[in-house]
Specification:
about 45% helix; alpha/beta; binds NADP nicotinamide-adenine-dinucleotide phosphate; about 260 residues
Length: about 260
């Protein structure tokens, strides 16, 4: 028996560390059973044992390398066929350092596979399954670098701009289906991602770095408030609304039969 009424199962990718591990804990506390996915099975098993004991929810561990198409397809199939899954947290991701001109293209291809292709495949499967059920939640972890690509690695920033755009389109597509969609855009958050991608995070000013548990709690508060886009550190939500409003000013002129006067 669960301590809290079950909310269904939350599928969390990248649940073995950082943001995903905190989400797993918070979702268990909210009464979700869990399907935890990452490559490090030992860490996932350790988390599962702790979460079962602390929250009395069911926790399944699935070891998968989400840069490998056959492993992604299996997970996608699970999402399409398992009607107990009610939340997808598309969180697994990697960063990169350095200039595009000097990049290791195989590394960047794996980044795109994980941050873009896998996110898309899983979001598609969840959208189909959740819309059919008339309920469910899709959370995609983006990044604020989607809004400031000049300040970070090109491919990573572009992958997160993709996540933002995908989420906005998907939300429009799912309107009226009962499925909730959210993109979370964290700023710098203290996790292993920096070390893993060879970036020295000690150079980043302390007042720019958020603890992962504070980031996740803010993101879940944004979800509870019905936000489509959550930027955990942004003090004034009106600033984001103004950014979106500026887009709507452009909208009527983005596709016309004639070129603008300055081009003719
Ligand atoms: N930390 C930040 O400053 C920050 C800011 C903005 C956005 N984000 C985003 O937040 C998300 C989580 O990152 P994090 O900061 O929590 O980093 P993290 O601690 O490095 O966690 C990344 C997670 O992704 C998993 N993962 C990596 N490669 C994988 C693969 N090939 N297949 C399956 N799982 C894989 C890792 O597990 P295994 O190694 O066990 O596979 C780990 O659980 C990412 O999408 C990241 O881009 C982070």
């Amino acid at each position: 028996m669960n301590s809290v009424q079950s909310q269904g199962t939350a599928l969390v990718t990248g649940a073995s560390s950082g943001i995903g591990a905190i989400y797993a804990e918070r979702l268990a506390a909210r009464g979700f059973d869990l399907l935890l996915v990452a490559r490090d099975q030992e860490r996932l098993e350790a988390a599962a044992t702790r979460l079962r004991a602390e929250h009395r929810v069911q926790v399944e561990v699935l070891k998968a390398d989400l840069t490998q198409k056959d492993e992604v397809l299996k997970l996608e199939q699970r999402l399409r066929s398992d009607s107990s899954i009610s939340l997808l947290l598309n969180n697994a991701g990697v960063a990169a350092d350095g200039l595009l001109a000097n990049a290791d293209m195989d590394q960047l291809e794996r980044l795109i596979q994980l941050n873009v292709t896998t996110v898309t495949r899983l979001a598609s499967a969840a959208a189909a399954s959740f819309a059919k059920a008339g309920r469910g939640t899709i959370i995609n972890i983006g990044s604020v670098v989607a809004l400031f690509p000049e300040r970070f690695n090109a491919t990573y920033s572009a992958s997160k701009a993709y996540v933002l755009s995908l989420t906005q389109s998907l939300n429009a597509e799912l309107e009226g289906t009962g499925v909730k969609v959210q993109a979370v855009l964290p700023g710098v958050t203290r996790t292993e991602i920096w070390e893993r991608s060879g970036i020295d995070a000690t150079q980043i000013p302390a007042d720019m770095v958020m603890e992962a548990d504070d980031m996740v709690d803010a993101a879940l508060s944004g979800l509870d408030q019905g936000e489509l886009i959550t930027i955990p550190s942004l003090p004034d939500a009106a600033d984001w609304d103004a950014f979106i409003a500026a887009r709507h000013v452009l909208a009527p002129n983005l596709s016309k039969s004639k070129a603008a006067a300055r081009y003719t």
